[in-house]
Amino acid sequence: MVHWKKRINISWIVITVLILAACVQRDPVEQVHKEEEKASPDVVKIGFSMDTLEEERWVRDRDLFKQAVEDLGAEVEITEARGNDALQVLQAETLISQGIDVLVIVPYNAEAAAAIVQKAHRAGIKVVSYDRLVKNADIDLYVSFDNERVGEIQAKALTERVPKGKYVYIGGADTDYNAHLMKKGVFSVLDSLIDQGDIQIVYDQWTDNWLPGNAYSNMKEALTANHNKIDAVIAANDATAGMALKALEEAGLEGKVPIAGQDAELAAAQRIVRGTQTMTVYKPINTLAREAASLAIALAKDEYIDTDKKINNGKIEVPSVLLEPIAVNRDNLDRTIIADGFHSREDVYK
């Protein structure tokens, strides 16, 4: 009798275990779905390869782009090449190996960055050129401001102030295709006045690596070569404009020679208030960062991007989204960069 009871108890234990196992066993279809979800996460991961963070402008780009990506529910990994094309290639390779879905790049060297595009495409990763165009590469998308228009705005602002005279042009880095586009825009305005003999270009030089110290040397050379007889200066950005002004100050010409810059940096806005810099070109970076983040995520999801603009980069006609830059001077400074919250009124006018 005892053995019979033990057999009954063991049988019930076995049946109970089988019932519990059946209860916890997952539906096969549900299990497949779970595994697919685990293998294909929905979160888009973006790699952002930046040339430098030396200038105020690029620090803003980094922070605004990161915020925009995260606001859209994606992730971003950011690298800075510190003005070194070999380091930028190495960092891009690291981003690619980390399994990013799309690469956004601000190239240090427009030509050398073509190698990065090739490496990304071999890994099945699309590439967005951010504000600076990569040359001779199959870029998937270019997002920037209209850089030729930047140059046009600068030249028009100065020719209204100085319709005749000796002009100095201090460009950006020769390795930056944007610097060439801006120069093209500048001379599209100046050429007719040069042909008429109203304007003389007495100095025209690139600024190696965009380094302000090189712009200072350029301006010193221009002043020496022309015995300080300079009537206007067009500088590729506000950092180079600031160092051109330093050379002018040393020559006793502070506030006497109109200067154009670009980027609406705080120091430039303060110089405009003081009357030592004539104007800058404001490119609403928040708009650029958000547009680039949205488009990068769309590319990662293989969504259609509607743009009828194309820019030739030496190899292909690159689909492009070009935003409109804004001229800023003493008259509209409050209505532009301050109204947008780009700089506070207190900081600008202190």
Write the layout of secondary structure elements.
Layout: H1 2-24, H2 28-39, E1 45-50, H3 56-71, E2 75-80, H4 85-97, E3 102-105, H5 114-122, E4 126-130, E5 141-145, H6 147-161, E6 165-170, H7 177-196, E7 199-205, H8 212-225, E8 232-235, H9 238-250, E9 259-260, H10 266-274, E10 280-282, H11 285-300, E11 309-312, E12 317-323, E13 326-328, H12 334-338, H13 345-349
Helix pairs in contact: 3-11, 4-5, 6-7, 8-9
- Span from first to last CA? 101 Å
What value does the average pLDDT take? 90
What is the helix fraction of residues, given as a range? 40-55%
Low-confidence stretches: 1-8, 13-40
Given helix and strand content, the structural type is: alpha/beta
Number of helices: 13
Sheet with most strands: strand arrangement: 2-1-3-4-5-12-11
What letter string, H or E per element, gives the SSE order? HHEHEHEHEEHEHEHEHEHEHEEEHH
Radius of gyration: 29 Å
Number of DSSP E strands: 13
In terms of DSSP E residues, the strand content is: 15-25%
Large-scale geometry = globular
Characterize the largest beta sheet: strand count, sense, and whether it forms a barrel. 7 strands, mixed
